[in-house]
Each structure stands twice: as structure tokens, then as C-alpha cells.
Amino acid sequence: MDEQDEDLGAFDPNIPEEGPSAPPPGWLDDIHGYQGHKGGQDDNPLYPPPPAYNPQPELNRNTLVPNVRVPTISEDVARDALLKFVESKWRYSSKPARNLTFKELNPITVYRYRLETYTETRTSAWQFEPYNGQVVDGPQYGMSPPPWDVPVTLPQRYTDVVENIRVPHTSFVKTCHKCHGCGRTRCISCFGRGQKRCTFCHGNGRSRNKRCTSCHGRGRKRCHFCHGHGYKTCSVCHGSQNLMHFILLTVTWKNNVEEFIPDRQPDFPDKKFEKVTGDPFFIDQNLLVYPIQGFPDQEICDASTRLINGHLNRFSSTSRILQQVQM
């Protein structure tokens, strides 16, 4: 360190350098039932539901489909549909549709199968907030409930919702890991001196044999990052010196939807079916639904078996299945 560096400003060794923004591994205590936490920034363990929380399917059970009656399409119905389409296109003329002569009318029936599985998933992570004397709900008030015993209010079925809940009795206060309890950290721009060497005159005070107009001949300038203090208020504890840590449980309700449409009409893309409206002629809703049988289209029966088994294998190991519906 040269003489010019020593003249930049006073250095306070009592102000610590910035620590990590997240608690380092091992900084936090273990909480019974949440030992999967390591304390790192990306720590967010997933808790599979206990077996008692997930329904078990009955073997060799199927769902019978009632008789399916496909409505017939007459020339009048087809013409009305064509006229409605023409009316939606302001450049089209309705005259050809009104005067159209049907030579042949071949209705084509395409079925669409849809499976919805409504699931609940629970994860948790350590969180913290500046401690300013608020109530600390710690282990002294009792044992923390396991992740799947924390009470929640179920949202409306088949809606995607995320709710964050502070786990009871997991809170405790600890010195801020970023400022080590000082409430402020050394400015990394001026290295805690409050002033920086002038970049125009390189600290000489003169530029081109004239007094530097940027630093007014002082050779140094006030650090604008810390406003000349040499330190900044801790960005984690906001000067409170202590943090309250707690476990935050994240409950995610999600409606998992999968559809199947037999690929028999290459000229009619599957995306077109997303715009088709109508009433389902068959709806089966239960805690668990079962593969359908007796449907006139065997591909639909096979798709029902495949999708139901796929959802059960995919979601029951990580989430709680709350309801299913097939249509």
C-alpha cells in the first residue's frame, strides 16, 4: 500500500466485510421432521406424502360407459354451421353458403378423451427476516408438526394455487450471517475508506499540468456507493444486527391435464380441437377414476388405461392425489 492509498480516508477495522447473502451450510439448527435441510440457498426439499394420505387403487376395476348416441348431421344443420362461419369472416359472402347444393354429406365422428388429476405438493425452505423484537414462535412452545400435518385450507378444486405457510415452532433468532452482528458492512467499492482515488488525474491532483477539475486538486473523490461513510447498512438484516429464521412450507395445488385425440384426420390439426365447444356426454369424477370400458372406440379405452396409470405412477410418489375426473 503506497502513501497515496493511505491518504484516501480512514479505515475502520471494526466494520466487517460482507458475508454470504444466504446462511452458509451448517449455520442453522436441525428441526425435527425437517432434517433434509442443509441451509444452502437452493435448499428446498420435497416431502412425499405418507402412504395413508394417498388413495390406493382397487385391482381389476373399470368404469362402464353408458351408450353413446352420436347426433346425426342434416343438411340444415350443416348449412347453419357454414353460415355462422361465414358471418364470422367479414370479407366472406353468405350467398354461396345459402345457395349451396349438397351432393354428399359424410359426417365424421372424432372423440376426445381428457383426464384431470388434482394434486397437492409440499416443499419447505429456510427463510429469514430482520429481527426487531417480534414474537419468536420457537421450539419452546412445542414440537413442530411434520410437513403433511400442517393444517391448510383447501382451495376450489381443479384450480392452481400456491400458498406459503410459516411452520409453527420453527423460529429462532441468530446473529446476522452477512454483517456478523454489526448491522453494517464495509463498502466494497472504496474498501471502507469512504473515498476513492480520482480516475481522471490518477490521484495526482493535476491533469495536463493544471489542477484537476474533477477532484479539485485533492486527488480523491467521495465514494458515491457509500456516500463517503466507508460502510453501508447491511442488506440482509437492514441494520437490526439479528435475524429470525423459520421454515416456510410451500403448498402447491395443481390441476394436471392430459388429453388424447385419435389421429385419424390429418387435415384437421389437433390444435383445432382446442377451439371446439360442446358438452361432454360422459363425466366420471372420483377420488381415483378407473379405465373405461365398453366405449365404441377402443383407442379411447386404451388411452384411458394408459393415462390413468401414468398419472398414478407419476404423481403418487411426490404428491397427494386429491381428485380425478375423466371425460
TrEMBL record:
Record region (Disordered): 1-60
Cross-referenced SUPFAM superfamilies: Multiheme cytochromes
A GO molecular-function descriptor: heat shock protein binding
InterPro entries reported in the protein's UniProt record: HSP_DnaJ_Cys-rich_dom (IPR001305), Multihaem_cyt_sf (IPR036280), SSUH2_homolog (IPR052789)
Ranges in a coiled coil: none
Family annotation (CDD domains): DnaJ_zf
Name recorded for this polypeptide: Ssu-2 homolog
Native species: Seriola lalandi dorsalis
